[in-house]
Automatic annotation (TrEMBL):
Pfam families: FMN_red (PF03358). InterPro entries: Flavoprotein-like_sf (IPR029039), FMN_Rdtase-like_dom (IPR005025), NAD(P)H-dep_reductase (IPR050712). Residues 1-151 form the NADPH-dependent FMN reductase-like domain. This is NAD(P)H-dependent FMN reductase.
Length: 204
């Protein structure tokens, strides 16, 4: 099982990145988790704002689209800024929505870490709304969220989660996500009405 884990921030130092790195190592025997950084992606800009210039999909954006397409599922780690997701993550999702819509029907697991006690709960709820939009149409595992509060003190010097209860909670959620991925893949393989994939063109 191969997953793409998106670091949903442009911060060079983030406990959300640390959380995904921990998951990458902790679940190495169960799945391959590849981390993707969106911090260097260009900000999304609509065609009308380009003054009819000939513009291709930026290389970094195309890399993200290709890796999502290859992955069985996607894990997104989001911090919480002013009760919502970071602008850089929203911009990345807009690129996906406007171009290939490659998140459609893709199993997605949302996790999040924050310095406060609530662990990005509001941002995760907002992210679910965005991913459920028609242009993205991701398949999110229901009734699941991993909230890591007070994240600055949640890891040891080697990047391991200190709280055994939080590790057990993450184990349970990830194992359910692997099963959810398998069930979703099987369900979609039996769907008789195939959804058309939008063909990207800056000319539209």
């Amino acid at each position: 099982m191969n997953y793409l884990a998106i670091v949903g921030t442009n911060s060079d130092v983030s406990t959300n990145r640390t959380l995904l790195q921990f998951m990458q190592n902790h679940f190495a025997s169960e799945a391959q988790i590849d981390l993707f950084e969106i911090k260097d992606m260009p900000a999304f800009i609509e065609k009308d704002e380009l003054e009819d210039a000939e513009v291709d999909i930026p290389v970094k954006v195309q890399d993200l689209l290709d890796q999502i397409s290859k992955a069985k599922g996607v894990i997104i780690a989001t911090p919480e800024y002013d009760h919502t997701i970071p602008a850089v993550l929203k911009s990345a999702l807009e690129w996906i929505s406007y171009t290939t819509q490659t998140l459609k029907d893709k199993p997605v697991l949302i996790v999040g870490a924050s310095h406060g006690a609530l662990g990005s709960s509001r941002a995760q709820a907002h992210l679910r709304q965005i991913l459920d939009s028609p242009e993205l149409g991701a398949r999110m595992m229901p009734s699941s969220e991993f909230l890591l509060g007070k994240s600055q003190s949640a890891f040891d010097s080697s990047g391991n989660l200190i709280d055994a209860q939080k590790v057990a909670e993450l184990d349970e959620i990830f194992n359910e996500f692997v099963l959810f991925t398998e069930i979703t893949t099987e369900l979609l393989s039996k769907r008789t009405l195939k959804k058309k994939t939008k063909k990207f063109s800056w000319q539209e």
